[in-house]
Amino acid sequence: MAEVKLKNIIKKYDDKTIINNVSLNIKDKEFIVLVGSSGCGKSTILRMIAGLEDITSGEIYIADKCVNNVHPKDRDMAFVFQSYALYPHMTVYENIAFPLKMRNLKKDEIDKKVKEAAEILNLTEYLNRKPKQLSGGQRQRVALGRAIVRSPKVFLMDEPLSNLDAKLRVQMRSEIKKLHEKLQTTFIYVTHDQTEALTMGDRVVVLDKGVIQQADTPENIYYNPQNTFVGGFLGSPSMNFIPVKIIDNTIKLNDTIVKLTEQQTELLNGKEEVIIGLRPEKTECADYNLELEVNVDISEMLGSEKIVYFNINGVKCSAKFDAQKKFSNTATLHINTNEFLFFDKDTQKRL
């Protein structure tokens, strides 16, 4: 078993708290993604799990064993770095074999493990090359190969695709996901890229300022964010947040009066002001019950879709349309008001 548990983890540098009371249970064989903006603490959490950073307080368990005082090399984990960290003077074969030589394994056993890893990662024909003769994606696969041969309980990956171009990142995302399915090992993956988080993780953990904002499946994180930070961080363009006042169970969107349902009125529980959350793709619903005309500020062509920007209640909003759709100075939104999410104006939490 390679279950990883974090219990009330705190990390401080001098008087500054970097990780603030984080608790998280990572299941055996789970692919979990830690995502957040720069400085949110995601890489620090990964390094504490690996034993590369001391924790100020709290406990880390691997397979039900507390590892707070266990040396990194004895935690049975493999760390894949952003920079690949390959030895330039060694061949691909020698790079992958290096951790096995450090364990004093027999030559034939090393050879078998290296060739098995190379086959999994389609590196067999590159085993005699040196890193400088490889592309970025091939170097990243070598770094993965060096981790695979150790047969660790847990794979730790710190932004491993950030140095690759966009096309290669898409390819490597699917390769890493396939690798996880093949190896059936626990993966803990750190990224600032929301697309990587949503497409790769069994669960996504959204962090901000050292605090877990939400830990859930990609679908729930995207469609049911627990606060405005999560809703605004994930999605491109991000969720629209529209401030509204509630008068006689109605709200006003620009000059249009919208009556709330009985269920929505009950949910808002007498609040006089709230924030409505609406995804840009939810502005063109087939089963709409509200038509809302808006003045178009600008539109952007993005391949198969067009992003249109406009104002509602004085805040900048966006909508997604089919790329073939033509606009003049106005656009008509087709909204199902049942798709509205409501957030508390003061706490920013989902109602």
Describe the protein:
With 351 residues, the chain is α+β, with helices and mostly antiparallel strands. 26% of the residues lie in helices and 34% in strands. It has nine helices and 19 strands. The protein has helices at residues 42-50, 92-102, 107-120, 136-148, 166-183, 194-200, 218-223, 228-233, 262-268; strands at residues 4-13, 16-26, 31-35, 57-62, 65-66, 77-80, 154-158, 186-191, 203-208, 211-216, 240-245, 250-253, 256-259, 273-278, 290-302, 305-312, 315-322, 330-335, 341-344. The strands form five sheets. It has a six-stranded mixed β-sheet with strand order 6-7-8-3-9-10, with helices on both faces. It has a four-stranded antiparallel β-sheet with strand order 2-1-4-5, with helices on one face. A four-stranded antiparallel β-sheet has the order 17-16-15-18, with no helix packed on it. β15 (290-302) and β16 (305-312) form a beta hairpin. α2 (92-102) packs across α3 (107-120) and α3 packs across α4 (136-148). The longest helix has 18 residues, at 166-183. It is elongated, with a radius of gyration of 24 Å.
